[in-house]
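Researcher: We're reviewing a set of sequences before deciding which ones to prioritize for further study. For each one, I'd like a predicted 3D structure that I can look through quickly. This is TPM domain-containing protein. If possible, include the structure in token form so it fits the rest of the review sheet.
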Amino acid sequence: MQSAFNYLTEEQQKQIEQAVIDAEGKTSCEIVPVLATSSGRYDRPEDIVGLWLTVITALCFWYFFPHAQGQAGDWGGMPVFVELILAALAMVIAFILGAIAGSQIGWLRRLFTPRQQMQDEVAARAREIFFDKRVHHTEGGTGILIYISLFEHIAIALADQAVIDKLGQPFLDQICQKLTSGLQSGEPAETICEVIREIGEQAATPLPRAADDQNELQDVLVLID
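Model: Here's the predicted structure for TPM domain-containing protein, in token form for your review sheet.
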């Protein structure tokens, strides 16, 4: 699973930070871009993959090492209790390996995680970051959070009510769609910069930057592993 800390090059991170500076030079909005590795724990894939690998292991034992009543199986006269112990041990190992695979292999985690659950986790994490990073506590109430979660391939745009009143919720929804498309197309840095510039242009007139406007939040790309 790709970490947020090595997803973009240092140069790409600087480009995003410069885009924030340029955009905030036109508007009173405080724009905070956030790139997260994942937004949820997602335990379900570990159990499912572990269970399936255990079942496959049990079927392999049944097929390759049959044991007819009154006969030693293909294990050369090995006592039944030893066979059972070995079979149980193999299935335990299979479950552990499956659980590890389900937790570490990204496409397996996505395969066995409902899309709605991922969307809920990303939305909840975005709201948490919105308050933790004090995006919601700007003096003019003009904070905008651009939250991108890499594992889920989902982006969320959150804004204070003053921003929503001026720009409209459809504009924020459009930004989310553009960010999601950028992740899927393999051009995340360019898309993030484009979205930030678009915010600056759209907010310049309804939420202009005042002469005495103070920069309340750092103009950096926040990385969360």
